[in-house]
Amino acid sequence: MIREVAEVLEAVSRVPITHLAGVLRGGRLLAVSTLEADLSLYSVDPDSGSAERLVEGFVSSVARPPYFSDAVYFTRDVTKGEELHKLFELRLDGSVEEVDMEPVRVSSVVHRDKVFFAGSREENSIYVVENGRARKLLSLQSFFVLTDYSDGLLLGYGPLRGPKSSELLFVREDGSYEVYTPKEGSVNESPIFYKGKVLFSSNFEGRPKLYLLDPDERKLEPLALEDVERFSPYEFTYLGTGSEGELIVIAKRDGRSRVFVEGAELEGPLGNYYTAFRFGGRTFATFTNSGTPATIAELPGGRLVVEPRVPEALRGALREVRYEKVPSSDGLKVPTFILISSRAEVPGPAVFLIHGGPWTEDDDRFDVMSYSLLALGFHVVKPNYRGSTGYGPDYERAIIGDPCGKELEDIASVALKLKGEVASEEYIMGYSYGGYLTLCALTKLPDLFKAGVAGASVADWEEMYELSDSLFKSFIEILFAGRKELFKERSPITYAKNLRAPLCLVHPQNDTRTPLKPVLKLMEVLAEEGKTFEAHVIPDMGHALRSLKDLVDVLLPSLIFLKKVSG
Ligand code: 4NP
Q1: Is residue 465 within 6 Å of ligand 1 at its C-beta?
Q2: What is the pTM of this model?
Q3: Sequence-separated (6 or more) residues with CB below 8 Å from residue 449
Q4: Which of 68, 405, 410, 428 is exposed most, by the fewest CB atoms within 10 A?
Q5: For 189-238, how does the pLDDT look when each residue is reduced to its tens digit (9 = 90+)?
Q6: Is the CB of 487 under 6 A from ligand 1?
Q7: Mutation pick for ligand 1 pocket among 432, 465, 466, 541 (CB with most ligand atoms within 8 Å)
């Protein structure tokens, strides 16, 4: 059994995941990829797909550079996983300069003719980089994302006026700023400059649409794009421009997305597109679907620039992908991806793999966790519980003020529906917010799942809040809609004595998003109560999986546990 798990992990650790991040000087593509075991930067030939590594060591994130830039800004965690980052300037001659700054949690970077970033520690601040040094411009109470800059105006957005809305943020270089919304309470996201105006998505007239705002006169007009309207997306997931200023839109509906240039769809294989860039009349995008690990594709058509490698031990493990909307206890439909393993009967053992965030989603993409489970003979069920992205602002915000509430009922409803139909027995596993929901399920609905794996989980909101930096404090405040009095009631440690199923805890030692300490306390309670559990602390690792080694460290104990309890 251990050999079987080892073989699968060995295969998993050879699957590179590649995302397109921009276009470099000379028309080569900038990719961020795990081609060589750690996440790093590559320059890729758009025709041959040959890749050249640009920097030694891992990167945490990279800023989208201006077209044909010969400089790239990336961040790197300079601690042992505690996610205190520094910003680095890489030049295509191979030199790397560290920006003179205190390490902070860098959450977004804008690289235009100037460079700005959002960084948090005790407060959430915006910095400008001048002559290789970071200067703080201002600090804000809430968290936010920086998106674009032109001509003295920096753009961003975030929940600046309350937990359920999202406003646009306009920042000037003297540190003054303005919060803009077309309508109080509406959700406004992803502003970029387009034809001298600010393009953004907003739901203030109902379903999210694109709007153009004149930043000086504050005149607002809708931007109707025929093919996009016909597609009728729930969400816009990416707004960008080509090297000639052409508008690039990626829109999403039911777990799949499409790319539109100047409003016309560029057809390609079904699946998901996460970023897209266009130069010299050619368009390139990050592409994935359930059978294709994220890679770079050219559109229209979908020629793969970098051929994805799926090792023998994983290939063929996926028999079928089903997508169902399962009614929850209150009738809300829960969009669920069901991956049928070719190595198990139907019904057969199934793992509910619960995504984190909560503001992310399980869509039609290749993910190594699912493939490891499929290869080991488990069906994989991925419910997009309320709070998931991809189904519009209302669905996404339905979790606010109610964590471990209705979204847990969503998961339970899917589990009850699939029992006997797809699943002979059901297990639950998740990382981060998914680890939290795993603990919620096992302690609040102790008969539902046969066993569970909680990775980087949340055991106690009270202690976690105290240990959090300003970014995660504001994140938790938004999630709870400010109702700190709910912390105790919504913490799995409060219900630890209800646990009946075997539990496997996996936790990075240096995690600063979901710190280890509250989980150590949970272990103490579980030990006192005589519960059956095992625990694995991953040394010198943080919350982010930044190399294939991190992934293997987390998956190894998880998969062995699941094989053991199901065997
Ligand atoms: P994630 O991690 O699921 O990986 O995004 C989280 C970290 C912190 C919180 C939630 C999720 N939090 O509520 O503070």
Answers
A1: no
A2: 0.97
A3: 352, 415, 426, 427, 428, 441, 442, 501
A4: 68
A5: 999 999 999 999 999 999 999 999 999 999 999 999 999 999 999 999 99
A6: no
A7: 432
